[in-house]
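As noted in the main text, all predictions were made from sequence alone. Below is one such record, for Thioredoxin domain-containing protein.
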Amino acid sequence: MPLYPFLRRLALCLAGLIAVGIAFPTTTWSSSQIDRTELHREIRSYLLEHPEVITEAIDVLRARQAEQAETELRSVLETRRSELVASTVDPVLGNAKGDVTIVSFSDYQCGYCKRMLKPLMEVLKQDPNVRIVFKELPVLGPMSTNAAEAALAAHMQGKYRAFYTAMMEHRGALTEAVLRDTAQKAGLDMKRLDRDIKQKSIAGTLEKNIALATALGIRGTPAFVVGDRILPGAVDTNTLMTAIKSAREAS
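Prediction:
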C-alpha cells in the first residue's frame, strides 16, 4: 500500500480516537514493525499538512453515533410501545380506535406546551383517524406536579379535555388558587377532586411517565412521539401532519 493513503487511513483513525479523548498506551514495537518515532513524525506531518482529516474523522464519528442512537431509540420505542400508546390510565382525545397515535408529554407551567394547544386541536379537526395520548410530565417544580395530579383526577371524572384546555389557555403564574379556580370552571366536582388526587395510582402514573420519558431520552417539554419518531419542542400543525403521514405509511 502506498505510504500516504495508508497514513490518511491511520490518521483518520487516530483523529477519531483523539476526538473522543482516548489516550494511546505505550507500546513496545518489534523490529519488524514501522519505527514508532518515524511513524509518529509522519502522522504528525500528515495531520499538519491535512488538518481537514480531523474534521472528516469527527464527522464520521458523529454520523456513527447518530446512527447508533437512532437504532437504540427504535429498540426502546418497540419495547415500550404498549406503555406509550395503550396505557389504560392516560387521557386520550380524538378517535379512540385511530390508526395513528400521537403521544404528548407536557407540563402545565411550560410556555411552549401552551403553544401546542392549538396545533393539537387542529390535528384532531383535520384527521379523524388520529388519537392523542397525554402523558403528564411535571418537570418544572411542585406546582407542575400538583397540576398534573389534578389533570389525572379530572380524567377520572371524564373532564380531562375541559381541564387541559383551561390550563393551557391560562397565562401567568400557576398557584394553588389558580389551579382550583380552573378546576371549578372546568366543571370538576371539587370534593371528589380532593379525594381522588390523593390516590396512589395517580402518583404511580406520574412516576411511570417520568421513567418512560427518561428511557426515551426526553429531557424537557413538550415532546411528541409519532410512530418511530420523537419530535422535541413545540412544532406546528404541518409538522405533526407530516409525521402522522409518515407513521401511517410505515404501518
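Confidence is low (pLDDT under 50) at residues 17-27. Strands lie at 92-94, 100-106, 130-136, 223-226, 229-232. These features were considered when defining construct boundaries for the mutagenesis experiments described in Section 2.9.
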